[in-house]
Amino acid sequence: MKFPQLINSHEGVHMTRLNRNPTTVLRVLFGMVWLVDAFFKWQPGFRTSFAGLLQGMVSSQPGVVRPWFQFWALIATHTGHLLPDLTAVTETALGVALILGVARRPIYVMGAMYALFVWAVGEGFGGPYALGISTDVGAALIYAFVFACLFVLDLRTDVSVLSLERITVPASSRVDPRLAQASLDEAAALDALRSQSRKNAARR
Asked: Which residues fall within 8 angstroms of residue 8, CB to CB, at 6 or more apart?
């Protein structure tokens, strides 16, 4: 009765690996979206209009949050192209890291934080909100939600080739000794079954 249980657990391992494929596809596609975003950030027009964009938000935002945008507009005005260049570099790095699967969970955390920063500064918290005028809460907030979903879905059941997971995850958490022992027991049980089958066939 123990052998079917071993076989079922072996099939469960394959199902777990199969179920991870959609997560990988989502991560790669999400990385491509970030690279498209980065492409637009590298355009000269974005660099020259970045400070003016933030300055325009100051007058359109409620008085409660207006000092927040005044602060970032002041920084953008006095630092030249530093902020738009950092934006382009960050989004390029996020896209490449997502596609390659490098240090996935740290990238998900940093990506979510960056998306929230873009939502709070570049998108003005998705506002100003007005009935009949506002249509959504801002795309960057959805980006942060996708990063959070990828973080939850990344169960670390295996180690990808293009990944720094061997560095970011302790070896003890990558390989469970009990799983290794169960695999050895399964192999020994199968060998015993084959040996018994050969003996029965020889007696006949």
From this structure: none
Q: Domains of the chain: which residue ranges?
A: 2-169, 174-204
Rounded-to-integer distance, Cα 124 and Cα 69, Å: 8
Instruction: Provide the residue type at 49 as one letter.
Output: S
User: How many angstroms separate the most distant Cα atoms in the chain?
Assistant: 94
DSSP E strand stretches across 95-167? none
Q: Name the burial class of residue 203, with classes exposed (0-12), middle (13-18) and buried (19+) by CB atoms within 10 angstroms of its CB.
A: exposed
Rg (the chain; Cα; Å): 26
Question: pLDDT tens-digit profile of 25-67?
Answer: 999 999 999 999 999 999 989 988 888 888 888 877 777 888 8
Residue 163: exposure state from Cβ atoms within 10 A (0-12, 13-18, ≥19):
middle
Note if the pTM is more than 0.85.
Answer: no
